Inverse folding.
């Protein structure tokens, strides 16, 4: 190839190299006299006289950051520039100015001037002597490379500390999850009300034996990755003056002892607040509908009286309450007013109100569920976070509505004003459950209560493919009709439905789980023979069914409880007050899966009282030690693998069996912390918080 062809080819290759760095070949050459090159965004190069021996075309080009490998733990504080031709050297240092973006510099840090040192442009080093001038850094270099102003990557907080509500005397634990974003290890410093806590240097901090004076304290943590720090959000500690009653803790004192109180709805918010509705009054005239809320310290009435019975022909239900996805309090109630001489048609009314912090405001139109005979019951769709309400009447009609932000809309788009018919002679008995998939399920019972032998067939129903009607899902909950006076109680862990049902006089009393298309009994007859009973299921993955029920006869009734431990139904200590007659109760799980009960008790034959208690479970902590793959330990439907710890909040007095499975080529070296162990099994009785370790080798 001759010279006249080599020159154009060399020029083309140079142009391609510059294009790869985002520039072009337009700058005039600079020779021994020196000069200045101006690049994009204010990047400049000043070459003193004598720095270059021969004229050279110098370029400054902005580089696509996705094509650049930065040092681990650092990020660019602005544009990255290529000073080309790469590898150009100077007889004396040249002055480079590179801009940075102040918005990309974390508070408390300063950007630093960096350049690459290798031909692959992947190895970086800091350039000493750089000075900041406005939004740029000036530094001297002797060789061309990639240049950028860099700042250390700070740690990032993945899970912020959460508010904690505990009872006086218990422990409060705050935790944070963070990523270092570099090769350094994280360090922590917890603060209380902005002041560092000595020795609190882990990913979690536990304050033991909390006192009422600790209530309201604010906790945060500073996370350091060796380059810089970030501070977490603030978590509040709320301390209840709960009074322990065995494993159950009372929320404050009685709500209003000495008056005639009828319990209504019952709800627990995500932040631990508890609300209930009640009728307060002993006669058919002057009785008041009220809402009370536990704020962690005391019970307060929310707003004024919602409804007052004005005559002896008017009936007001005690109402139902709920917290919506944003934590706002909802209350619903219904009245019948036979204000007229028969055969005048009675008037019906139904109201739903939301507390806005100052007053109860209408929540949709009144009578959104016309001719419903019960208070709407509320739940939250886990997918849409919308509030869903369901109610029914004795004629086999059910109403399912959801709040769309402005009003209550029906399940079926084609007939939102209409009730969902579940069949003549059918009674909706259990309300509504919603699975994590968003599927909505109702339990109904079919039969005629006026025709012996009063047999009913329980059936689970859900919307069809058009979401217009509720139709049967799977086989009946009971394969053959049996009498059961209390109907069906439904619950879910979010994944599968559970049902409690059966004959309340002669048995059986069954808890069944829908697994695929089959209803499977859990543990056989639980032996409960009461009219009023409720089913609860703790959240997955533990998914422990619990049954609460009224037991005994007046004047010595109490609430009993049983839970399924995976093998047998175990008794749970009663939440009822000894020597008081519990004539009514409500039970539910908090969003965290902690059982709560609302008890209606009679301290004396002529007085009534309401008490709320929260279960204080013990925790079984299981640690599995050993090499990866050496073994696992299973309990209560969970599997804990090597190198991990698993926690099980369980009822006091519970007996749990842990089962080890050994990996190929390994063995179980030891159990520690068991009450009894035999081979691969370990049994623990929870009379306090317990820790067990399985070690594989």
């Amino acid at each position: 190839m001759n010279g006249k062809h080599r020159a154009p080819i060399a020029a083309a290759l140079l142009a391609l190299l510059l294009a790869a760095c985002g520039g072009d070949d337009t700058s005039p050459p600079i020779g021994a006299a020196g000069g200045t090159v101006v690049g994009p965004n204010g990047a400049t190069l000043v070459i003193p006289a004598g720095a270059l021996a021969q004229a050279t075309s110098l370029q400054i080009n902005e580089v696509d950051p996705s094509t650049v490998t930065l040092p681990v733990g650092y990020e660019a504080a602005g544009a990255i520039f290529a000073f080309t031709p790469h590898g150009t050297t100077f007889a004396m240092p040249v002055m480079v100015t590179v801009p940075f973006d102040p918005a990309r510099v974390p508070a408390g840090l300063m950007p630093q001037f960096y350049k690459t040192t290798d031909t692959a442009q992947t190895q970086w080093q800091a350039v000493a002597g750089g000075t900041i001038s406005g939004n740029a850094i000036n530094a001297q270099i002797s060789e061309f490379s990639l240049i950028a102003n860099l700042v250390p990557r700070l740690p990032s907080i993945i899970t912020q500390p959460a508010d904690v509500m505990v009872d006086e005397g218990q422990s409060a634990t705050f935790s944070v999850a963070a990523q270092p974003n570099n090769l350094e290890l994280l360090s922590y410093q917890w603060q209380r009300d902005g002041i560092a806590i000595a020795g609190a240097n882990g990913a979690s901090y536990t304050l033991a034996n909390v006192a009422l004076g600790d209530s309201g304290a604010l906790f945060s943590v500073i996370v350091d990755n060796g380059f810089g720090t970030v501070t977490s959000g603030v978590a509040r500690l709320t301390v209840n003056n709960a009074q322990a009653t065995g494993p159950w803790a009372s929320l404050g004192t009685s709500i209003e002892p000495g008056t005639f109180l009828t319990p209504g709805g019952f709800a627990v918010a995500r932040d631990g607040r508890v609300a209930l509705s009640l009728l307060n009054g002993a006669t058919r005239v002057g009785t008041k509908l009220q809402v009370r809320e536990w704020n962690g310290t005391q019970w307060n009435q929310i707003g004024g009286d919602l409804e007052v019975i004005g005559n002896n022909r008017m009936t007001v239900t005690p109402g139902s309450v709920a917290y919506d996805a944003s934590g706002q309090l909802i209350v619903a109630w219904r009245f019948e007013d036979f204000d007229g001489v028969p055969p005048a048609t009675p008037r019906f009314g139904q109201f739903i109100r939301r507390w806005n912090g100052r007053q109860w405001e209408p929540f949709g139109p009144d009578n959104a569920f016309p001719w419903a005979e019960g208070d709407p019951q509320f739940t939250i769709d886990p997918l849409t976070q919308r509030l869903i309400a369901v109610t029914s009447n004795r004629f086999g009609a059910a109403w399912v509505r959801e709040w769309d932000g402005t009003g209550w809309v029906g399940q079926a788009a084609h007939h939102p004003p209409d009730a969902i018919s579940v069949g003549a002679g059918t009674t909706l008995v259990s309300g509504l459950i919603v699975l994590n998939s968003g599927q909505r399920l109702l339990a109904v019972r079919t039969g005629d209560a006026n025709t012996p032998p009063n047999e009913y067939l329980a059936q689970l129903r859900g919307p069809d493919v058009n979401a217009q009607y509720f139709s049967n899902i799977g086989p009946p909950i009971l394969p053959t009709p049996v009498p059961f006076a209390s109907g069906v109680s439904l619950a879910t862990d979010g994944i599968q439905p559970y049902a409690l049902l059966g004959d309340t006089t002669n048995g059986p009393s069954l808890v069944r789980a829908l697994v695929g298309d089959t209803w499977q009994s859990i543990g056989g007859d639980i032996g409960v023979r009461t009219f009023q009973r409720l089913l609860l299921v703790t959240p997955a993955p533990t998914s422990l069914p619990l049954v609460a029920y009224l037991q005994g006869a007046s004047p010595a009734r109490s609430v009993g409880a049983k839970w399924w431990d995976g093998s047998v139904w175990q008794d749970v200590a009663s939440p009822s007050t000894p020597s008081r007659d519990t004539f009514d109760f409500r039970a539910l799980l908090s969003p965290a899966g902690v059982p709560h009960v609302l008890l209606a008790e009679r301290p004396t034959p002529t007085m009534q009282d309401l008490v709320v208690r929260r279960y204080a479970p013990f925790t079984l902590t299981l640690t599995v030690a050993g090499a990866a793959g050496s073994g696992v330990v299973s309990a209560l439907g969970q599997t804990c693998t090597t190198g991990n710890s698993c926690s099980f909040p369980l009822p006091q007095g519970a007996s749990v069996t842990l089962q080890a499975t050994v990996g190929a080529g390994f063995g179980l070296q030891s159990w520690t912390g068991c009450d009894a162990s035999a081979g691969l099994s370990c049994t623990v009785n929870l009379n306090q918080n317990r820790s067990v370790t399985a070690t594989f080798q």
Remarks:
- The two ends are 71 Å apart (CA to CA).
- Confidence is low (pLDDT under 50) at residues 1-25, 412-420.
